[in-house]
Amino acid sequence: MTDSQPEQFTFDFFKEQPHIIAESGDELKITLGKFAGPLDLLLYLIKQEQANIFDIPIAKITDEYLKYVRLMKSLDIAVAADFLVMAATLIEIKSKLLLPRDPFAPEEEEFEDPRKELVDRLLEYEKYKSAAQMLYERTTVEQAVFPRGRIESDENNAEVDASVFDILTVFQKILARHVDEIKMEIHREEISLADMIKTLKKRIVDEIELSVTAFFEEMHSKRELVTAFIAVLEIVRAEGIRLTQSKTFGDIILKKV
Amino acid sequence: MDAVEQKQTKTPAELMAIVEALIFVSEEPITTKVLADVLEENRQTIDAAVEELKNEFESREGGLQLREIAGGWQISTRTEYHEEVRRYLKTRPSAKLSLASLETLAVIAYKQPVTVPEILEIRGVQSASAIKTLLDKRLIVAKGRKETVGRPMMYGTSKDFLIQFGLKDLSELPSIEDFEDLAGSLAQEQ
Amino acid sequence: MDAVEQKQTKTPAELMAIVEALIFVSEEPITTKVLADVLEENRQTIDAAVEELKNEFESREGGLQLREIAGGWQISTRTEYHEEVRRYLKTRPSAKLSLASLETLAVIAYKQPVTVPEILEIRGVQSASAIKTLLDKRLIVAKGRKETVGRPMMYGTSKDFLIQFGLKDLSELPSIEDFEDLAGSLAQEQ
Fold it and tell me: What pTM does this model have?
């Protein structure tokens, strides 16, 4: 390839046909489930290709990687967003490598290998992957060791050892017990202005004279109160409703004209 | 065939060791019949091993004894050291809380300062004894009285609470959002 | 006066026996500090008694061992007899952690205190469900918040982590650089 057109950045996982599936579907299915993430998959592919991690044949590895991702899709394995992010990263690196070097770039400017960041991440990740292996081996050994059975004095102390997350979890559970009440509350609070106006109008028609104070006192929350207040203003402005007040600071009565 | 082969290779010392391990992990006194069944040995062999083990425990004069109790065998501390054992059990550091105490502590931690009636309102059960436990353990402290009917006492978490749960200050308590963040990205993963 | 009198009468053998009894009754690994406090002895005396007891357990070659774990001491069965113990308890090896959980745990163990975004950075994949699992299994705990945008929770390993992985303390973990050599060898092979 020359500098004509670098490969397209966008790709469609659904349109492309999986290439490997026909050969050894079962085996792959098993392998696929084992990858702990995109870096894990990449390491696997690099080893498969027997490639040098410091000189990754990016075009080949990208192709293989995309094949796997498509395969996961075709096998109805939910592909985590992180796998797609890595696919995009690989394609970007691949296209960068295809771009010719700027001939006018100053000589002394070190050519930054577009793969470097990825290699660093892979090496860093691999350390933790090995550490995970070590932990796995440790648990295997530890599972061969047993503590004593419960004795009488344990009974007096049959309690839980709490962490802060236990406190939070417990608190959430308590809140969950009230979930119905809370739902009702939310429901009540979310009465719309239109509904409030409707209710108010009906009350004025039914009761002929309605005390604003009494109406406000029926509200359950500040928010409802505000809605009620706006409803009163709205009804006075738009409908044939009058506000009357017998004396200053006295009760305000709503009345149909 | 293999099992038989393997069984025959067990020396009396090995058998004693295995019997000791089994008695140790058992939650209740273990009978020689059960031991014989598990180890696929005859009762006499096991009886002998247990008897030998008992003698060893006695001649060791350590802190433990092997006792026959309720038809089975059990390892327990020697009666001579019960005073020290009792003293230890009493001073045992306990960051441990019953569920009732933990619930009450959770409500106080997240709603502080909070009164007993308010805790009742949230938990839906009386919390008086839990509050007493938490006060005894110094996990909560009184925070003055609420200016309302009856002027009930308000409670909040203490400095000891922060220390025991490894928090710098109350803002370090995990919030519902932290959990939702976890739950949120969990949904994404699936 | 009485206490002093009593203390002085304890022979090293008695002290060993009492230490053994207390380690036995304790549900969790017990530290020499706690032992020293309960027995009103100095740390050196207790350290020596524990060390001596450990040697005795080793030379006895019974079914039990005395081990240092999670900063304390604990009696447990010897690994050699796990098959018989498991057969008796009718337990199977407990469910192993998933690869994702193990990786996440490894990152937390070495990078603690560490936030969720930092774990994502290293693993390259969302780790929320793994973190939830590890919290549920009490292998990790919250370690306060990081003073950065959004004040994310930080996580670290727990005492249960040390117990379940058979570690005296975190320094017993091989250093992460040791794994670097391992990772490097992948490149060298080519």
Answer: 0.70
